Amino acid sequence: MCFLGCDEDEMEVARQQAPGSCPYCGGKVQAFDLISRWRFCFLPIGFRFKRKYFCSLCSRRLVLYDF
What's the rounded Cα separation, in Å, for the pair 32 and 27? Predict the structure, then answer.
């Protein structure tokens, strides 16, 4: 949150198991679908859909690299 009243909210929409395993501990990977909403002085500006990956065993955030 910034000083001028800017805010970003993230809300979980769905959770599902993703293919592969965690490179750190070998646990299962879960994919989270999120909606992030931006507000300026409590007025909605816009929203965006995101997908984030987490390990279900060690709870690390995993980043997908495209080469």
Answer: 16
Q: pLDDT higher for 2 or 43?
A: 43
Q: What is the pLDDT at residue 5?
A: 65
Confidence of residue 3 (pLDDT cuts 50, 70, 90): low
pLDDT top residue among 35 and 66: 35
Nearest alpha-carbon partner for 62 in 14, 53, 33: 53
- Residue type (1 letter), 23: P
List of residues 6+ apart from 4 with CB closer than 8 A: 40, 41
Nearest Cα residue to 38 out of 12, 14, 11, 13: 11
